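Response regulator
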Amino acid sequence: MLKVMIVDDEPWVLEGLRTMVDWEKSGFEVCAEALSAGDALRLIREHRPDLLLTDINLPVMSGLELIAAVKETVDPPPRFVILSGYDDFNYARTALRHKVDGYLLKPVDDEEIEELLGKISAIIHYETASRLEGQKKHNILVHNLISRCVQGDWSGELEHAACGLLGLQPDTELQCILAAAISGSGTVSLNEGDTEGFPDHLGYVFQDPAGRAGLLVRSAGLSTEALEAAAAQVQKVQSAKLGVPVAVMISGRGNGLRSVQELYTQTLEVWGLKYRKERGGIFYYNDLRTARLSPEFTDGHFTRVLDEVKEGVPERIRAAARETFAAMTAKRVNIDAAQAEVAHLEMTLCRSIAEMQGDPDQIMCAMHKEYGNLGGLTDYYKLSLYVDRLCLETAAYLTELRAGNEGNTIYNVIQYVDLEFRSKLQLQDLARQFHMNSAYLGQLFRKETGRSFSDYLNEKRIEAAKSLLKRTQLKISDIAVQVGFSNTDYFIDKFKNKVGSSPSVYKNAHNNKQL
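Structure:
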């Protein structure tokens, strides 16, 4: 039901409008009434009506002045309808300049107001839907942007997008906050537009590859006390919602998008170490700095295991996992460090699943149901069983996803080439990026486009070169580099074969036509 507020200095007019107009029939309800503009301004902030019906002649401040004041202080403002006992065109013209939606003369005609309310209701519903759709698209863009930063996909283009979308500058101070349930299958979910304690303009919600809820926070705008209070609110609300303890991990501070992946990694370190020793709570990365992981943690023991998971051969996965744990045992890596490294393994595998449009929860929920929390695996034997099963299940799931995505993959490859043809592209690199055999990808590419990968790539580059030759005064060598050819002679040769003339002849011919 939409809310309407009525403003008139005559009590009998207020009562008549409230009782004699069938507001419900038009989808409205009267939420407040006011006898003056001053009272109206106070009540508008409290009730946030969708429609303001106001008399022009009010004491102290006129109805038109009230409308102007509301537009300055309320965002988005309500729709407006003017009431007047004067059939005066100057009033109507002034009201129209204020972009009101209707101008009604007293006494109000029932049919006239019902017709006007119907039109305004349709406008409000349309604008609300458009605003929600715009916010939804904005939230998706924010999610994607932060997710790419979390995964280390930083670029100047991304930084420019963040500046426009979020107002983030290279020197903007940031902190990352991760919230996760200690036990059970409940998933922490932070609401859009409600960062549960953090001011809306300071916190941006995202979800990591493992399904954990995160916030990227502009920390320069928060005192240490305010940050802790906001984090405590997140922890309290989510614990009550899920019925299980929730841990909130807070990173150190960094600047700009370049720091996001490191800040996120810091929260994972806290998640991998601290949370298991407590029953929920708020934990800071800076508190761990005096007790950092042993140097072995950074050796990347699971690198070979990850490679074998991508290949998908169970025997080789098991062998790589056994060798990894043997090496960690020989180096006497403590169990906390081993658990934290397995947490990173989890994150990487979840990211691989998500990149192939899979659902990481399908694996992780099953693993947690069978093995419990990672923190409960307090010896190497239990941890090795967990890793073995995790890697085998992930490998099987990735194989399944590849089979299902094969038709879409070649389409995505072609789209990628169409966008990135100016870059240094190799079929082998694309095959690795899209998790395919290079020879098979070449066959699919020819089948789909009717040309080999190299021919298709060269044609895209030559078409771009033709456009530059027509429209710019760049040198031939510069154009070759801009469209993706590292060798000018090779570019000229391919251009001749495709177009039938050299780039310089093509350029001169086009210039002569322009003259």
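The CA atoms of residues 468 and 479 lie 7 Å apart.
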